[in-house]
Design goal:
The complex is a heterodimer of chains A (about 250) and B (about 180). Chain A has about 250 residues and is mainly alpha-helical. Chain A is built from seven helices and two strands. Chain A has a two-stranded antiparallel ribbon with strand order 1-2. Classes of the chains: A mainly alpha (about 250), B mainly alpha (about 180).
Amino acid sequence: MAAEGGSAIDPIHQFNIVEYGAVDLFGRHFAFTNSALYMLLGVGLIALVMIYGSRSSALVPGRMQTLAEMAYQFVAGMVRSSAGEAGMKFFPMVFSLFMFILILNIIGLIPYTFTVTSHIIVTVCLALIVFLTVLVVGFAKNGLGFFNLFLPSGVPWWTLPLVVPIEIISFLSRPISHSVRLFANMLAGHITLKVFGGFVVMLLGAGGWAIISPLPFVFIVGLMALELLVAFLQAYVFAMLTCMYINDALHPGH
Amino acid sequence: MADTKPGAPTAHATQDAGGHKAGFPPFDAATFPSQLLWFVLAFGALYLLMSKVALPRLAAIIDNRQNKISGDLDNAALMQKQADDAAKAYEKTLADAKARAQTLGQEASARAASEADAKRKTIESDLNAKLAAADTQIAAAKAQAMGNVEAIARDAAAAIVQQLTGKAPGADAIAAAVAALKTS
């Protein structure tokens, strides 16, 4: 790991945070890093498609406007179907979350790039945004009635001592599962790709074994397709769960 | 996927700067403040751009298109209705005209028939009158001819009797004989 040559097949190396410049403020170390660069790149790309693409407000859309409209309709449909018309108040949030995760997942699949969503601190932030929104909206809209969330209707009263703690634990573990799901999927996918990439390199350098080096390469091609699906699916799952949690906040009695 | 750029910035800079030993990068707390800061900035910017600029604009575009399409469909329905009305009016005038033409034709043919009838009747009565006149003329001529025939017969009978007997018979006898022949 210490050797520069070792990084070629070190599957963890790709997650390293690289600093381009830093300041120390309030006793903390703030740096402009590769992660920050890719976040800004992702936001810039989204803004390019969504704002530059819709600049002409054409009745018959061009390519980029079609893309922007597709993204809009897709997320709007998701929010409407799972959180109802009242949930459309949170559409900009769900849309931002979905696009942010999607674009950063996909950028991360390009070789030599950095995957922002493979760092748990980022996915925890994303999940906490949702969790805190649900808490604030839930109590603001329903007051103490939000605790009805822990009292499922139609359950026999004598099971409540068991059901209520389970519901509370499942509610509190939401931000954990919400963030770890995305983080772990991205991390594992990239490590797998890197490990199989390393196999190709190692086999090529192993004399006669070089003859089977195309095998892991073919495997990587398939894996890449799968990771592309996962990149979309994780963004979709994250946004979908966000919608369902918001629906819980709006209508706690389920 | 292999980051092997020779001139790349030192990979473990953060860990070194933070004074931590190199570990699993996603769990390296020394990088958290930077990531948090830039996440808040980037995501905040994205949220503001989306909620203030992009999404309202797209909503307006999609709304506008929906309105345009439904407006066009309404217009088309209205025009369709107008076309149907026009077709109905046309059919009605056509049917009216046909009916009028039929009644006119019927009237004309009836009038023509009655005129022809009247003309024929006058001609027939004319002809009948002429026929009757001719009949009476013929009857008169016949009666006259018959009267002449009786006188001729009487004269012939008197001449024949005179030739045979040498004396002229009395006119009464001849008349009686002719009458007797006539009745037989």
